[in-house]
TrEMBL record:
It holds the Pfam family SBP_bac_11. The lineage of its organism: Bacteria, Bacillati, Actinomycetota, Actinomycetes, Pseudonocardiales. It comes from Lentzea pudingi. InterPro entries: VWF_A (IPR002035), vWFA_dom_sf (IPR036465). Residues 340-531 form the VWFA domain. Residues 1-22 form the signal peptide. SMART domains: VWA (SM00327). This is VWA domain-containing protein. PROSITE patterns: PROKAR_LIPOPROTEIN (PS51257), VWFA (PS50234).
Length: 531
């Protein structure tokens, strides 16, 4: 079933997945009466006006630190979350409950609202597909996607719950078993899943950046993405008018449980109960529905007219952590379009010492040396093209690798050896080196255009080369569309020129990541969600 929507009058923050501006390992303050310290998914940033009102009404203030679902599960499982938080608040507890060490640390959950993950397309595209007059299931959607009758953007399922839910939902629906996915069923539906994901032309680590990128491309006459798979609430908030397609065979719904940790103090338990009661009151539930476009969690509050489908079929969730992890790994190594990343890496003299060591460690971590849960999914994937372009006073020769799907370790070992051999000396020719990287990408794209392509620019200082940011901007404006549209992800490190890096990200449709107050490894892992 479908629904035509007009642009929202005022869109709230469209955020999901992990945030590069908060370190979930860092406590958000000491426990104090009247304060609930919450490790959360960053899509909950749009609840701040509701929580400000709750603080005035109840005396309970919420202090957020944002992270992604997988990374958050790891913090809970290891006990790190207990050191600085009283509760967790993700879009779903389903994954946490599959991790034994995390599950036992979860206390009382309170469901506050809900939002299914659905497909949003322009009305003209829905009509062209013939979906404006009939209900359509995931199998038909996958068939149309495989024929490239439409394209879409989706978030990284290891970094953002909307992508995670979409992956689980389409896999469960295509299996047609009516029961939880396991490894055998994932293998059985892999051909259909690959067909479906062949139409994904935009990826992101968060729903907010995904929506922003989609809006930029939607205004481009040569746009390569038709729609989005995202939370219903995000699609309802989109400035671009979209028609929502609710697959007839079911969806995976986020139910946003505000969940105490078992280590929470008695004061935190009282604060949790008081806040939960307030948030589930009828008036507040209606306000949440009106302002965030999420569905109320209490049955006495009726859905308003913007929700086209009232009763949703909920698809079964995988029954084990190994099944979920296997599905995510299969997505990266086999199902989705492979990625291509150019790493433009500052190895100037100012990088000597701990900084060059940090760069080596960050790259080595991406070769599989990082055994953490988040590290497992952020490693270089099968079929991926990786090019390292170290620079100082000038760019060094590019080092090109392609990670095989079947036996990746030898190539990963080569990348690791290269990373550990990086040394620091010379000046900082940022823009001439970055410009030279486009010559590498031009050849690779001409030979194989059907990849997600991005540039990571890491520098610890200001440019000392003969070309400046204005020169690069003029160069960038002259690029053909297939190169001009490549996002650049600058990483702030050391004494980076923040304003210039912001300018570079903005002109390319990229995003700045800050590693000045955290490890370079953490920033590199987060960037992986956007590649």
């Amino acid at each position: 079933m479908i629904r035509r929507l007009l642009p929202a009058v005022a869109a709230l923050a469209l955020l999901a997945g992990c945030s590069d501006e908060a370190d979930p390992a860092r406590p958000v303050g000491d426990a104090t009466p009247g304060t609930l310290r919450v490790l959360a998914g960053s899509e909950l940033a749009d609840l701040q006006p509701i929580l400000d009102e709750a603080a005035r009404a109840t005396g309970i203030s919420v202090k957020f630190s944002f992270t992604g679902t997988i990374e958050g599960a790891e913090k809970v499982a290891s006990g790190t979350a207990e050191q600085g938080f009283d509760a967790v608040w993700f879009s779903s507890n389903r994954y946490l409950e599959l991790v034994p060490e995390a599950q036992k640390r979860l206390g009382t959950p309170t469901k506050v609202m809900s939002s299914p993950v659905v497909l949003g397309l322009p009305a003209a595209k829905v009509k062209e597909l013939g979906w404006d007059t009939k209900r359509v299931g995931w199998a038909e959607i996958a068939e149309a996607a495989g024929a490239r009758r439409f394209t879409y953007g989706m978030t990284d399922p290891s970094a953002s719950n909307s992508g995670f839910s979409a992956l689980v939902g389409v896999a469960a629906a295509l299996s047609g078993s009516g029961s939880a996915l396991d490894a055998a069923r994932i293998d059985a539906v892999a051909p259909q899943l690959k067909q479906f994901f062949s139409a994904q032309t935009l990826s992101a680590g968060s729903s907010g950046w995904l929506s922003e990128a989609y809006q930029r491309r939607a205004r481009d006459p040569g746009a390569t993405v038709d729609g989005l798979i995202n939370y219903e609430s995000v699609l309802l908030s989109s400035p671009e008018p979209l028609t929502l397609v609710y697959p007839s065979d079911g969806v995976v719904t986020a139910d946003y449980p505000l969940t105490l940790l078992t280590s929470a103090s008695s004061e935190a338990r009282e604060a949790h109960q008081k806040l939960s009661d307030h948030l589930r009151s009828a008036d507040v539930q209606r306000r949440i529905m009106e302002t965030t476009h999420r569905r109320p969690a209490v049955p006495q509050v009726p859905l308003d007219g913007k929700f086209a489908v009232k009763d949703l079929v909920e698809l079964p969730f995988p029954g084990s952590q190994s099944a979920v992890d296997g599905l995510i790994t299969t997505y990266f190594d086999q199902l989705r379009r492979p990625s291509r990343t150019l790493y433009v890496l500052d190895t100037s003299g100012s990088m000597q010492g701990d900084r060059i060591d940090g760069l080596r460690q960050a790259l080595v971590g991406l070769t599989g040396a990082d055994s953490s849960l988040a590290g497992k999914f952020s490693r270089f994937h099968g079929r991926e093209q990786v090019t390292l372009l170290p620079f100082n006073s000038s760019a060094r020769p590019p080092l090109k690798y392609e990670v095989p799907q079947d036996d990746p370790q030898p190539v990963l070992d080569q990348i690791r050896a290269t990373a550990t051999s990086l040394d620091a000396a010379g000046g900082t020719a940022i823009y001439s080196s970055l410009r030279g990287g486009y010559d590498v990408l031009r050849q690779q794209i001409d030979a194989d255009p059907d990849r997600f392509t991005s540039i990571v620019l890491m520098t610890d200082g200001e440019n000392t080369g003969s070309e400046d940011v204005t020169d690069f901007q003029l160069f960038h404006q002259s690029l053909p569309p297939n190169l001009k549209g490549i996002p650049i992800f600058p990483v702030l490190f050391g004494e980076s020129a923040t304003a210039e890096m912001d300018q570079v990200a903005k002109m390319s449709g990229g995003k700045v990541f800050d590693a000045r107050s955290r490890s370079l490894s953490a920033a590199f892992k987060e960037i992986r969600g956007y590649q």
